[in-house]
């Protein structure tokens, strides 16, 4: 059975709004596709190890990626490594450049109440996982809204030049009204099976 792997953002969780929208839509409209959304820490090497192990346990069956914010960063890492299709929603671009702002301070996940403290070596781990220039351009559908208050959408538009792109005026970092794009996103992810 195909699996849609939804990768949540920084200090987010499987209970986030978009993750739950995707889960509910699949249960209602496409029960033939399993939904998977692991709870990830902000520690890059740990995330790499967990996602690699998860994807390798699911292959060679169809695996579809959908990632929001930092989840878009991790979806790109997996899409390049395993040749998988990915829908990226307001994805983080070069998040290691923002990580110094978070080093040494207590971070709290408001979904789970867990707390974390990043260290300088985590920046190096993030840099090592960064795909500066995606090569499998047909594997991506970039979705951004210009009103994103957290990330500059233009960074993602530039990084994923040559990929399928949806650039909506307005909106915000949560990608307002995302649920209306779920059917088309799933159709895009499935289209890779025939190639």
Automatic annotation (TrEMBL):
> InterPro entries this protein is in?
AB_hydrolase_fold (IPR029058), UPF0227/Esterase_YqiA (IPR008886)
Report which superkingdom the organism of origin falls in.
Bacteria
* Protein name as annotated: Esterase YqiA
